[in-house]
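Quick check before the chapter quiz. The format below is the same one you will see on the exam, so make sure you can read both the input and the output lines.
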Amino acid sequence: MEFITIFLTTIIKIIKYAILIRVLMSWMQTNPNGNIARIINEITEPILKFIRKILPRMGMIDLSPLVAFFALDFAEIGIINLMNSL
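Here is the expected output.
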């Protein structure tokens, strides 16, 4: 069970870091067609796209990365608590 917990929490952390990198890249001028940008977008877009469908538009501000961080934090805490209770 410990392996599953570590594996799932590691995946969540990787996704959170990818979202952070995506946010930082959006503030800088980067090549959107570059390999790194494409990989980051492929990792993060399914989660952010799902949140954008639910979240109302806030003008030019995209709050989906912030909501994704909170959701991933809750998921990580839930996984840890669930695995510890088994």
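If your answer matched, good. Residues 9-85 form one domain.
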